[in-house]
């Protein structure tokens, strides 16, 4: 009889008598165990069967079989006949024992769960896996346990485990497997490994047990890499000055960061340029020691243009970013410097005052850092201020802006000049009588008793002009014929 998982069902035995007897025939019966256990596998029973006079109708004996979910072998019990009473008739028991076989129909499943565990920064944490047996088994159940890597590296991200788990007979108490996970500070993807169950031994019942394996262990990475950006990706220094580069670095789990700088952009970080803060402060001479700006460019503004790299590290993880580095030629002092603005009109508030009878005009022309004229096609004319032909070249390339003021008056005029360039002022003199020189550039020199002096002088943002060079050479010009003050707007903090 098939056992079933619960309740009871009857195993029915049939007792037969071959010939009629003229009197009632009675037989006692009782169950007896063999491999089955009375009270657990079947209900112990006994009784009497009776064949009526002259009747051979078969008689039945019902023995209750107890259902359960235990995985076990098929089991047997006996029904024994005894105590025949036929009132002296010639009746005998030919087969006194029947055998009942309880066919077990139970199965079991062994499972192991998946486990996620946060890695940690150091030491070990344990990924605990639970092995479950769905139904009890009549025998001892053992399995071997071995870990294998997937994306995780064995004995680096976790430690290899080889062991076994065992379920005692009729026990379904869950078993635990602990796998050590090693903490670190390395930013990496979440990684996985396997916990495998194999070599099932259930004392002959292995075919009735299913093993679902492996369990998957997922190591959750909890590390963060530093991130770095530049306050301004475009950094400019004038030769002779000090370069300051500000970076912005963040790291969610580390406070101690270090920085390396590759200022010439060749990919090799300069060993002697490291900082504990995100600000680099370096003088021009140090840049030249690195070869930056040593060989000047043929450029009206810059002697060097290149890229630089900065790396931030938390000791394990790094991040890098790049920016541009430009070194400006040191310009002539008398030039109007609008190189700190982008290539758009820059509005200048210019104040003019005049203390002279000549009705002169202030004009402008574009130059490079040395005062060499840049013509209307953007080409540099290779003439330094004061060189022969310089004044004629200035006259040919004057910009349309012209500024005037009356004698003994002061005016403020808004003038737009294109940003990203140098400009030089020029004085065109409108005399009331004939004089020898009616044009003054930044290259014009006056010989006085105090020595040679330029006809255009600058002090901070004030330009002073001398309009007449035919005065007594033993005296000094007062350089207040026309005075020009420029109120410069604030240049952008980051110009790219």
List keywords for this structure.
mainly beta, 496 residues, five-stranded mixed sheet, 3% helix
Structure explained in plain terms:
The protein has two helices and 34 strands. With 496 residues, it is mainly beta. It has a five-stranded mixed beta sheet, with no helix packed on it. A five-stranded mixed beta sheet has the order 17-23-22-19-20, with no helix packed on it. A five-stranded antiparallel beta sheet has the order 27-25-34-33-32, with no helix packed on it. It starts with 7 loop residues before the first strand and ends in a 9-residue tail after the last strand.
Topology:
Blueprint (H helix, E strand, L loop, with lengths): L7 E8 L9 E9 L12 E6 L7 E8 L8 E11 L11 E6 L5 E5 L2 E4 L5 E10 L7 E9 L12 E6 L7 E8 L8 E11 L7 E4 L2 E6 L6 E4 L3 E5 L3 E9 L7 E5 L11 E2 L3 E5 H6 L12 E12 L4 E11 L7 E2 L7 E10 L6 E7 L22 H7 L13 E9 L3 E7 L10 E2 L4 E4 L2 E4 L1 E4 L2 E4 L16 E6 L9
Parallel strand pairs: 7-14, 8-15, 17-23
Antiparallel strand pairs: 1-4, 2-3, 2-5, 5-6, 7-9, 9-12, 10-11, 10-13, 13-15, 16-18, 18-21, 19-20, 19-22, 22-23, 24-28, 25-27, 25-34, 26-28, 28-29, 30-31, 32-33, 33-34
The beta-strand count equals 34
What would you call the structural class? mainly beta
Largest sheet: 5 strands, mixed
* Rg (C-alpha, Å): 53 Å
Terminal Cα separation, in Å? Answer: 91 Å
Helical segment count: 2
For the largest beta sheet, what order do the strands appear in spatially? 8-15-13-10-11
Low-confidence parts: none
Which term fits the overall shape?
A: rod-shaped
Can you give the helix content as a percent range?
under 10%
Our estimate of the beta-strand percent is: 35-45%
Arithmetic mean of pLDDT: 92
């Amino acid at each position: 009889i098939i056992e079933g998982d619960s309740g009871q069902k009857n195993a029915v035995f049939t007792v037969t008598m071959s010939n009629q007897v003229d009197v009632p025939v009675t037989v006692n019966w009782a169950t007896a165990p063999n491999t089955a256990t009375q009270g657990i596998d079947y209900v112990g029973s006994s009784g009497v069967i009776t064949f009526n006079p002259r009747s051979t109708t078969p008689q039945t004996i019902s023995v209750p079989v107890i259902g359960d979910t235990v995985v076990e072998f098929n089991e047997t019990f006996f029904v024994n006949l005894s105590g025949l009473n036929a009132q002296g008739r010639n009746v005998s028991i030919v087969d006194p024992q029947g055998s009942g076989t309880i066919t077990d129909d139970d199965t079991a499943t062994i499972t192991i769960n998946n486990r996620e565990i946060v890695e940690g920064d150091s030491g070990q944490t344990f990924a605990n896996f639970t092995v479950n047996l769905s139904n009890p088994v009549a025998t001892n159940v053992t399995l071997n346990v071995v870990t294998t890597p997937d994306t995780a590296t064995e004995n680096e991200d976790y430690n290899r485990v080889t062991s076994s788990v065992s379920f005692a007979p009729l026990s379904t108490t869950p078993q635990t497997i602990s796998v050590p996970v090693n903490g670190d500070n390395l930013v990496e993807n979440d990684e996985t490994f396997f916990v495998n169950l194999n070599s099932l031994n259930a004392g002959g019942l292995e075919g009735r047990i299913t093993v679902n394996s492996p369990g998957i262990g997922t190591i959750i990475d909890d590390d963060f890499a530093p991130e770095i950006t530049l306050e301004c990706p475009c950094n400019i220094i004038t030769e002779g000055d000090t370069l300051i580069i500000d970076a912005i670095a963040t790291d969610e789990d580390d406070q101690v960061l270090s920085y390396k700088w590759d200022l010439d952009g060749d990919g090799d970080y300069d060993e002697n340029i490291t900082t504990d803060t995100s600000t680099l402060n370096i003088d021009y001479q140090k840049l030249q020691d690195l070869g930056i700006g040593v060989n000047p460019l043929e450029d009206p503004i810059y002697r060097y243009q290149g890229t630089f790299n900065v790396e931030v590290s938390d000791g394990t993880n790094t991040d890098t970013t790049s920016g541009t580095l430009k070194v400006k030629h040191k310009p002539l002092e008398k030039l109007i410097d609008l190189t700190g603005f982008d290539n758009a009109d820059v509005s200048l508030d210019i104040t003019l005052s005049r203390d002279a009878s000549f009705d002169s005009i202030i004009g402008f022309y574009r130059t490079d850092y040395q005062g060499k004229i840049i013509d209307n096609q953007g080409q540099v004319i290779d003439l330094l201020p004061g060189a022969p032909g310089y004044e004629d070249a200035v006259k040919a390339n004057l910009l349309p802006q012209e500024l005037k003021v009356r004698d003994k008056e002061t005016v403020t005029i808004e003038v737009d000049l294109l940003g990203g360039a140098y400009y030089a002022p020029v004085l065109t003199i409108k005399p009331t009588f004939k004089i020898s020189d009616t044009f003054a550039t930044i290259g014009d020199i006056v010989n006085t008793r105090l020595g040679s002096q330029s006809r255009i002088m600058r002090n901070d943002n004030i330009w002073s002009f001398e309009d007449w060079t035919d005065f007594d050479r033993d005296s000094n010009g007062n350089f207040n014929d026309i005075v020009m003050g420029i109120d410069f707007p604030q240049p952008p903090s980051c110009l790219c």
